[in-house]
Amino acid sequence: MTEAVQTHQIALMSATGLIYRTVSSEKARDCTPDEIPIIDVARLWGSLEDRKELAREVLHACENTGFFYIKNHGITNSSITKVLDRSKEFFYQPEELRQKASRRHAKHLGGYLGRADRAGGSPTGKINTKEVFVMKYDPKFDPTVEDFTKIPEEVNEGLHAEEFYWQATQHIDGFQDALVGHWRSCLDLARRLIKIFAIALELPENYFEHLVTYPGADLGVGLYPGWPEGMVAKEAEMGLNAHTDVQCFTLLWQDNHGGLEVLNRESQWVRVKPMDDTLVVNIGDFLMRLTNNRFQSTIHQVVPHDSPEDRMSVAFFFGFNFNEQCSVVPTCITPENPKRYEPVVCGDYVQQRLEAAESFKVPMKG
Length: 366
Ligand SMILES: O=C(O)CCC(=O)C(=O)O
Ligand SMILES: [Fe+2]
Fold this sequence. Notes:
Blueprint: E1 7-14, E2 17-24, E3 29-30, E4 38-40, H1 48-63, E5 67-71, H2 77-91, H3 95-99, E6 111-113, H4 115-118, E7 127-128, E8 131-135, H5 153-158, H6 164-167, H7 175-200, E9 216-224, E10 237-238, E11 240-243, E12 249-254, E13 260-263, E14 269-271, E15 278-283, H8 285-290, E16 300-302, E17 311-319, E18 325-326, E19 344-345, H9 346-358
Parallel strand pairs: 3-14, 4-5, 7-10
Antiparallel strand pairs: 1-2, 5-15, 6-8, 8-9, 9-17, 11-16, 12-15, 12-17, 13-14, 13-16, 18-19
Bound molecules: 2-oxoglutaric acid and fe (ii) ion.
The site of 2-oxoglutaric acid (AKG) has 11 residues, from strand 9, strand 12, strand 16 and strand 17.
Pfam family, one: 2OG-FeII_Oxy
Organism: Penicillium brasilianum
InterPro entries: DIOX_N, IPNS-like_FE2OG_OXY, IPNS-like_sf, Iron_ascorbate_oxido_reductase, Oxoglu/Fe-dep_dioxygenase_dom
């Protein structure tokens, strides 16, 4: 960063605990295609040669900003529209009905997280205005699981699905079907993409396959309240504070309101402009760890958008089976980049990170 540029510090929870980053105070600008490329993933359904070519483009993006758009991903607009329509019915009902699905009733972290539940829980002291409904991986919805009553005990113990959030939303016709339908499409796409990551890392295509049979796979439908005419977000409010995602990678659908920003390699915020018919893919901390920091899990945030309408996004967070222990992959260890991390149990890592991100408050440094 050149000296003339004004900077300030942000605090956030990272894979190594609380960190501070110096960032440019310049206004965010649109991302360039070099920072966040658009990758055509129609080749997922093509030949091995097609997939290798795709893997080269993905590799470049993962080693660069760690964010890319994908097009021709096979997820239909109607799948998204159903999720949005049914979710609006959930979000726009009286608070006491939403609260029946509250995460306060959860053993794990599924269900509804409202604005009030978040107060004070951010490292910057800014409140996230985002409300979110989260469903967790459930083998009974996974088409590749033939008999969900015969799941190995060690897998069962790590599952985080719960019934209460479905019971609390039963009165919304089609809500569960819409979310589960979309979740299934994302799950299929993610299992195809993980093969591309394997190829990109010069591993056999099926290297990660046994790790995604009962994967971490959470769907979060988010609502960011709009700002009626003349009203603006308070200094103390953010859409979603700066963070990194925790699992392997995220598939994000966003509407046209904008607000998502990524910290680029020059520590400047760049806008991830909404783009029709694309999803945004970003690398999470677990995959960064597994790749010995070759792939970038990049800091991002959602700033308040400038519209009286609410913003909506649908994020699918994908990671490995929670009961598996994973080590840095061999192709990412070199004399110049010796092994940085010990093996870790995927579920333990994810749970600790998610809990830490939600349960602390520290003042800004400086
Ligand atoms: O809503 C968005 O655009 C991004 C959401 C996000 O980063 C997250 O939920 O981790
Ligand atoms: Fe995120």
